[in-house]
Each structure stands twice: as structure tokens, then as C-alpha cells.
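for the record, two folds in this file. i put them one after another cuz i was lazy. first one right below, seq on top, C-alpha cells after. the second one comes after a little note so u can tell where it starts
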Amino acid sequence: MTSPPPPVPAPPATLRVVVADDNPVVRAGLTALLTGHPGITVVAEAADGQGACEAADRHRPDVILLDVRMPGVDGLAALPYLVRIAPVMMLTYSGESETVREALRRGAGGYLVHGEFTADQLITAVRDTGAGRTHFSPTAAGAVLRQLRSANAYGDAVARPPYSTVSQASSSRFTENLSRMQSDVGQSSGGRAGFRLSAREAEIMDLIASGMTNQQIAGACFISEKTVKNHINRIFAKLHSTSRAEATAKWLGNWGDPR
């Protein structure tokens, strides 16, 4: 008796996206780019924060791309409402440290600054945001790192948003880790010079210390997880460490001078 053919796997669900930007050219470009890739569709566009909230209510998307500066209700004002519905990635020309910090505080799951990513990187970031993974473009990542390096820069500004939802678990864990490290960062400058890390290694070590996973670091730095692992192996060798916890303790100055 002939065995029945194996069942055909169901196609992956289409990722449904809302694009909010006050520039109609940017909106049209993003919509054309995203809908040109299989598995992604733009279900609505909005020209301001109020329109984004209405579109999110109506369509219940999987991901929301949100500009910061828009007329009327801007992106930051709309964030607390939108993160209740879906993961939000800021996609904007605004790269000021204070703006990045406030977006994270209000629950943004990622932050990309126009001109700092390719089309393929944007597609990856959108898909990862839908899966709860974090992405930062270089300017936004730099803002986060500056907060890590100076307790005074973000001492009372990074806290878990009370309105965070399960869909924002990745962003919430990240901001919680930053907050828990607050008292340690002020000690971090004392023992670093002797470690001889490259600029990229120092950047990745800061992200490790913030609590990011390899996957999140790869997204923040726009590199592969394999490259992240290679950097971490070199970092561990230079810090004479065998674990992330040990490396973090030494990097933050809690274990005295490097060997």
C-alpha cells in the first residue's frame, strides 16, 4: 500500500506593517520597498501619530514603523499607546541622544536613522522587530553606548515603561538591564585602558554589559552573529575571562586592574 505524501508545510504568515511618517515620499518609498518582499505587506500608512494609532487600532499590525517628528501628535507622544498593540521600530531622521533615550523609555523596540542602513538591513530589522529582536543603526547605538558610559547621562532616565506589553519583552529586558547597571557604570572608566580592546570590541563589550544577547548585538551593529562570536572570543582573551559575567565585572571595573 502506497504511503500518503507528506503534508505540505503551510506558508509563513505574512508580516503586516503600518508605516507612519509625515513625508509622503518617504511613506511611498517604504511601502514600495516592504511590499516588494515576500511575507511582508503594508496594511496602512499614517501621516501623524494620531493616524498611526487609528491605523493600529483598525488593522492590528505585527510591526509599526514610526517617525519621531510629525505634526500634531508626534511619534514619541503616540508610542505609549502603540506599544500596547504591536512592536514599534522608530524609523526617522532624528538621531539625537535624548530622542533615542526617550523612545526607548517609552517602549520602542528598535531605532533606525535614515541613511544608516541598506534596504536589505531594513527588511531584516522589520522581520526581527516582529519577532521581538532589537535593532539599532549606528547613531542610535552610539546614543545607547554614551548612556552606558556615563551614569550622569542617563541616571534617572532609563526605566521599564509601565505600559510595556509581552510583545515588547525584548525592549523591556534591555532597558531593565541598563537600569540595573546604573550604579556600576560610574566605575567603568577606571580599568579599561589596559584591556587594549579595539573600538569595535569596546562597543560590543558595552553591549554585552548592557545585557544584550549575541543576536541583539548583531542587530545593533548590523553584523552577523558569527562575527559577534568572533569578537567575543577575542574580547574574552584580552580580558582573561571565560564568561560574560566575568568579562562584564572586569569591564565595569569591579575586579580591579587588568592582568
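(here's the note) second protein begins now
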Amino acid sequence: MKKPLIGTLAALALAGGTALAGAAPAHADPVDAVSFAGTVALSNCSGSVVRMPNSAPTDPALVLSNGHCLESGMPGPGQVVTNQPSSRTFTLLNPDGSDLATLTATQVVYSAMTDTDVTIYQLDTDYATIQAQYGIAPLTVADTHPAQGADIRVVSGYWKKIYSCSVDGFAYQLNEADWTFKDSVRYTSGCNVIGGTSGSPVVDASTGLLVAVNNTINESGESCTLNNPCEVDRSGNVTVHPGIGYAQETYLIPACFGPGNQLDLTLPNCALPRP
């Protein structure tokens, strides 16, 4: 995964040498309907304001990013963080990528790097208030598995850059250093993500729905090391795709949220890892 940026040259080097080269923000192609609306910039990563398919306008708003972007440190294998107080701030973006407002969290609702790589924050405001004050609607998390071949956009609020590619396929198991992710989205070569893009929403360009969260890329062709994930199939065979990025599917998340956007890992169809 792309190690979180912390604002120093040393950290940028750890996050990957290409991170520094990507410092000049770039905006979406004008022909593309996907914009920065709904996205946020974190201090070291990217993210988005999200709703579940059944979320109500008056529900507390949620922000989705990566588990390895958690401000208290990356969760270890098997570790699941829930209901942790947080006052983290997020820069909400206009559709053109310019800064619009600052949003503030009240808690980390869920964070894990086991099977997936997600952090979900609860904000101190609701969707209706964000819409009324800033004219920004949340991205909706799809509750169905992403499709192979789908036209996708990886929208980085940190770099204000949109990557365009397709879903090349799915990795049965993705190993990176000590962490294991399951059923990961593999990009085609167009999404050559860099440090700071971690946590970016992966949007299906045909539906506008959020189908995954960007989290890693094989930087130098190494196998199963930090910043060099490898794929492991059902038979244990290992494959390395140098220069190819990955995202973690998010379709399992809605089944773990009940009325009022309340996390409930005991719901019958909830398959997220538990503490």
C-alpha cells in the first residue's frame, strides 16, 4: 500500500519516489462526467463523503478512506478498530477540485487492514446540512460486486487528480508485507496511482457509484513486500504484476450499517472482520 504522506521529503520517499513527481495537481479531463464532488483530502491520504444505499439525509455523514491512513497508525493483521474518538479534519472539494470547506470527525467508526483496507469516520454533521451549506452530495456505496471490464475512475482529493482505467480482474488474495487482502480489484495500466492517492474512491463511470477504495500498487516488481503486493490464487500460486495498482471492494460495507448509519457487525449479512 502507499504509505501515508506526512508532509516531509523523507515520508514522500517512503511513500514511493513517484509521489514527489506527482506534486503538481492535475484535474479531470473535461470529457469525463466523474468529478471531485463528494471527495475529500486528508492530511496524508484521499477519501470521500459516502452514504449507504439506505442512508437518510438526516443521518450523520460518513467519510471513507484506507485503514492504513488511520491517524493512530496502521492496524496490524487481525486488528479491528471500532468506535474510536477522533477529531480529524477533512478538506471537502468542489467539483473542479478546489477547496470548499472543512469537515470534522467525531469518531472512527471502523478501521481494519485484514481482508480489506478501510477506515470509516463519522462526522459532526449530516448529509442534508452538507448539501444545504455546500451543495455537495455524498457518493453512494454500491452493494453489489464490481464488474470485470467496468470503466472506472480513481479520484484523489489529496492530489486533485483523476485516474482513468478499467477493472482488469480480481485477485483472490493480495499479500503485502504482513497484510492480506481478499478479492481485490486489479486495475488496468491507466491507474498508475502514487503516494497520497490512498483512500481515493473508485467510481464506476457508468453508474457514478463507489465500488472500491484505492489502496496499493506494485512499485518495483518485488514480490509480497511493502509497496509491492503479490497475488496468490486458490492453489497458492504467486503472481506479480509490476506497475499495476489495486483497490479494495466496498460492496460488503452497506450490510454492516443499520438505521441511522449505525455500524452493527452482528447484522446477518455483515461479513466485515470483527474485533
